[in-house]
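Please, structure for the following, as tokens.
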Amino acid sequence: MRPDPPPLRPAVPRPAETPPVLLPVGAAAKRLRTNAATLRAWERRYGLGPSGRSSGGHRRYSPDDLQRLRRMLDLLRQGVAAADAARVVRTAPAADPTPPDVAVGDLLTAMRALDAPALTRLAGAALRRHGAAGAWTAVFAPALVAVGDHWDATGCGVETEHLASGILEAALRGHLAVLAAEGRRPPVLLATAPGEHHTLPMTALAAALAERGQSSVLTGYLPGRALADAVATVRPHAVVLWARRAATADVALLARTARAGPAPVHPAGPGWPTPPADAACAPLLANLPDAVRALTVRAPAPRSGPA
């Protein structure tokens, strides 16, 4: 007898809406642990100003404004240049307040119902709230793992995994298209090993890199000669070769590409041995946030001089 699938999360009534609190610049700065001069500068330079109005008509920061500014501060702490961080914040709609555990439950419910419109809506909400790296780590990957575990245990659910993967791929590519980096930095070449058709993690990595202003070239799976040709054409500052399974983790191809240089070649994914089998290879990228940190080229500091 096949086991029943894990129970779906029951619907929870939502609390009644209350009017949002609107804050003047000083109070908003205090809430964000920054200063009013910084917020005024961001409004002047990047258009990240208050969108609310008090009863007297004075401009005030709304909860959505504060969420955007928190995202700006988070990106700056990660080393993203201010102009790039502002571009990410401006292009992202207001955040959905759904916490990650609830978002995973909602996504699983839509997956099991094969509800494509709901999947599309939920994927977009997760990307708006968490960004590509956060959405992948906290929402998309846990839901996909749950579906995969059920498939492994019962032999059922391939239709769920295929529909969900296609919709999440489309959502991430849409996010990537909006945030496409402008090519000011050398790109990263993102490929999967020959025979490896699971490209979704590389799409998530490309979108997360774009959020930090880092361009990439996403090729999908490539045989050895095609990978060498792509490296020669793109001249990337780094190469990532993804393998989900040991059967597709071509250690010889990885080592050959790494020795050809000059770009470091990182294995990524659970298929590769740890540590890499060849000393010529760059370190294994164990997870998406670590990969983003390792692969992002810092923008050169602006030159000082007369305005």
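DSSP finds eleven helices and six strands in the chain. Confidence is low (pLDDT under 50) at residues 1-19, 299-307.
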